[in-house]
Amino acid sequence: MAEKKHEDRLQRIIEIERELGEIQDVDVLLERILTETRKIVNADAGSIYVVEGDKLKIKCGHNDTFLKELAPGEKLPYTSFSFPINEKQICGYVALSGKPLNIKDCYRISESKPYKFNKNTDITTDYRTKSMYTIPLKMANGNLLGILQIINAKDENGKIITFDQDAEMLIAHFASSAVQALQHAYLTANMVKRMLKMAEFRDPKETYPHIERVSSYSLEIYDRWAFNHNIPEAEIHRYRDNLKIAAKFHDVGKVGISDVILKKAFPRFTDEERNIMKGHTCIGAQLFEPPESLLDIMSQEVALHHHDRWDGGASGYPGRISLSDFSVKDGIVPITEPLSGKDIPLSARIVAVADVFDALSHKRCYKEAWTIEDAFTEIMNNSGTQFDPEVVLAFMQVKDRICSIQMAFPDEPED
Amino acid sequence: MAEKKHEDRLQRIIEIERELGEIQDVDVLLERILTETRKIVNADAGSIYVVEGDKLKIKCGHNDTFLKELAPGEKLPYTSFSFPINEKQICGYVALSGKPLNIKDCYRISESKPYKFNKNTDITTDYRTKSMYTIPLKMANGNLLGILQIINAKDENGKIITFDQDAEMLIAHFASSAVQALQHAYLTANMVKRMLKMAEFRDPKETYPHIERVSSYSLEIYDRWAFNHNIPEAEIHRYRDNLKIAAKFHDVGKVGISDVILKKAFPRFTDEERNIMKGHTCIGAQLFEPPESLLDIMSQEVALHHHDRWDGGASGYPGRISLSDFSVKDGIVPITEPLSGKDIPLSARIVAVADVFDALSHKRCYKEAWTIEDAFTEIMNNSGTQFDPEVVLAFMQVKDRICSIQMAFPDEPED
């Protein structure tokens, strides 16, 4: 019986390892690694920290006990903090020693150990951290990517137990292939970053914080929309991974717009110039032509249609267009029928809300920043006209996390 | 004893699988997959074909018997051909059936089989293809990436033997992780392609065939240079993988140059415009800032220094420069000391030769194509002045393969 259980877990691990290898986005992958590691050993809580310079930065935190207290579809607060690597903290100790650490009870750590458990969070949240297993995520060459920490393993009756040898072995096996998947995801993230930097060289409005915010907002909106619509888990996994990256490419087509036009401030465009600017949607879509993956397809959808309107109103563009009708060289967007409602791909409907909200709530060269409340109100006022009302509903349902993301990625000060 | 051998092979396979997972370039990876598969079962020859549309295209072909007849450091001719997928050919049959095929003797295939062995190559090259194992490279979702075919397994005395069950099992195991590595490499190749397309949107001279040629020439030059210099195998593996991709980014910095200047034909530049154009080297290097990998570092070297001269002559640029002295916004390359000799990174010295050779031997908007012989002569005439003489020597030693690459990637006809 115990052997059968062990076999089943191993089989599941192998299947999940294959799935991890196909995840492209680092954040989406880290979430999944934490979820699956916790499932393997039935752990109540956990976190992943990544190395950034000489600091550890939290990337995700789970806690089933807290989650049960929330309404269905709600998530724990979005957290963003980092701390210097230091052997007095458990994570820092594991980072420096490079070895896993299995603690039976965090409240009974021997005084002789260099590290201590910090009870502050337990006290403020009324939680009891007991068993804890902390493992370094190390590459084959020894470089440390981050720290995986799981807390409070449970037996079949929900009683907190210690992480046993079997759990240690399973987690070590799983972590090693999680690291391989992570290395690939970092490579992809690096390439994405270079592509976005190319666009930023041309249009300095397309800054790193703006793009990170739009991408993170989009993921939050999608997660809530998918909950509201009972989307199956496998589809959610696939969609959110592609959306997280595709959202970043929404304005990448600006790379093909003449800098004479790009450098003008928006309200002073002539009609012709405005029409050329609209071409950034088609140029962006052309960039992913011919599409070779689901990511390419979604990147095209987002780039092409994030300025189309839910009600098909005349200010939306480029409308119902075939890419073959557009030449990057001429840059002229042809006159088209409007595209509206669900004919606009979901990904583009989501990014439309995320992009406009972010533009409103931040300073641009041609406008001051709106207050975050005014920006939320503006989005709501345009629900059903400019924006898909179900997307706006999901957006408003995750308002708290949107605010936290905004604070986690502030604009850099102007020089 | 047999068990020990089996164990050793398995151990080696696991180690190689890890190494495969770190290779970024598709062509470099395919070469390595073929080499390692052949080693596992001691096969004399083999090929890999990839699916392109409804065709199979050869990507690499090995034959130890032919190789032994060449001078040390020489390679077999560069081959480039493709054929429609068709069950009458062995590869096509395996592609369509999706199952491995183990043939004991290619000259004794039963008449009842739909496929036949084509003896033409054997006849013209005086070779005897006997045992052959052909396996589809299929993704987890069933999509076919290509066909791996290995020929003439040998026993310890060099006698041709059949691929036995043990060999089948080892190859199947190896192929499945080779496919995973390939999927990642294709993802990377896709991203690289999109980055280059962004540059091509701005400067139509930076076409796909030009970039593929420069990158493939660079690999050939490096391989020969590394042979001439007795570079250890592990370093060669790492270097050629990075160089193959980094070479493609040599002019990617043009994305940051104003289109007013880019669209002018070269000889008509004013001094100021020419100076701004020179900034593409620094912009390219900035794109990979801060470097996160060996690929980033090499991409910076190539972008920054592929116009510096071996003799430090005044027409080389940007010279001894610190990236912090260059602002993408201003675009002015500061006045610097010249950089010369081995202070110019090897990668940049190689790409310098590859890039100039390709520009000379092809038509540009401001000049006609030179004959390939004139282009080779021009490179030789500038050995020791513009170019590193040892790089030019290696280049001339692989002249035949350079010519074949040129034919494999012709310029597209102008519209």
UniProtKB/TrEMBL annotation, chains A, B:
What Gene3D superfamilies does this protein's entry cite?
3.30.450.40, Hypothetical protein af1432
Residue stretches making up the HD-GYP domain: 184-411
SUPFAM superfamilies, sorted: GAF domain-like (SSF55781), HD-domain/PDEase-like (SSF109604)
PROSITE patterns assigned: HD_GYP (PS51832)
Q: Name one Pfam family in it.
A: GAF
Under SMART domains, the record lists: GAF (SM00065), HDc (SM00471)
Q: What is the name listed in the Swiss-Prot or TrEMBL entry for this protein?
A: HD domain-containing protein
